[in-house]
Amino acid sequence: MSAIPADDAAVPESPSTRGSLWRMLSEFLENRLAAVGLGVVVLFCYLGPLIYHTDQTHIELSEATLAPSLAHPLGTNEVGYDQLGRLMVGGQSSLEVGIAAALLATAFGTLWGAIAGYAGGFVDAAMMRVVDALLAVPALFLLLFLSSIARPNVGLLILVIALISWLGPARLVRGQALTLRTRDYVRSVRLMGGGPIRAVLRHIAPNAIGTVVVNATFQVADAILTVAALSFLGLGIPPPAANWGDMLSNGINYTYDGYWWLIYPPGLAIVLVVVAFNLIGDALRDSFDVRLRGR
After folding, report:
1. What is the per-residue pLDDT across 168-177, written as a single tens digit (0 to 9) for each?
2. Do the Cβ atoms of 245 and 90 come closer than 8 Å?
3. Taking Cα atoms as reference points, which of 216, 208, 213, 191 lies closest to residue 114?
4. Terminus-to-terminus CA distance in the chain, angstroms?
5. How confident is the model at residue 291 (pLDDT cuts 50, 70, 90)?
6. What is the Cα–Cα distance from 219 to 167, expressed in whole angstroms?
């Protein structure tokens, strides 16, 4: 008689599981707008600088505010940096901060909401009152306050954005946990002596993964907008690092000088990336929700 594995994690992945993952990937790729959006973001920000080499370190005032030409397709900025190359480098900073903040917020919010929903009762009420209290504070005010009391840097910016972004995932996962905790497989964990940590980490959180992943993509888009807003207000990633919000803020100073290439490209880049991540979120929602497959 063959031995029964002591832990369900030791059970090998079944063909049906691999088939489900492949179907979800196929559903995602069928959404051409999302696939193209993801491809353009990666190609432009990370492969672009490898092909289009520019000097984003040394200032060249003799080439400041040059109009678009063959040498500089999007012109140069106020200190002589190539605008197209700076858009690529700035996209890396904006994406890295946005993705890191979204992952941190999603991970903490998922854990918070799963614990609150699974525990229920007084624990749930107390934890969700904390969420409600933080939601009552205007996000922009909290961002400005936290950014002004400390010197802005990439790490602080990620923590500050994550601090206001985990509230949404927490509420979503808490709603999922309230439903999932009544399922038979969660009750079976209790009957077999499993603790609440195992129930939350092995059953509640994994079964809310669809909601979590889709929300994470929207969190990335929101975080990129927040980075741009803080940079526009002078509280973003400090120089010499480039980001789209700071580029847009500097370009506004030349609004009446006719230097349109300092304003429209970074603004358009922010809009396009946010739209791309929203499309990716819609595609992931369709992939995880079996009711929407094939539509």
Report:
1. 888 888 888 8
2. no
3. 208
4. 46
5. very low
6. 11
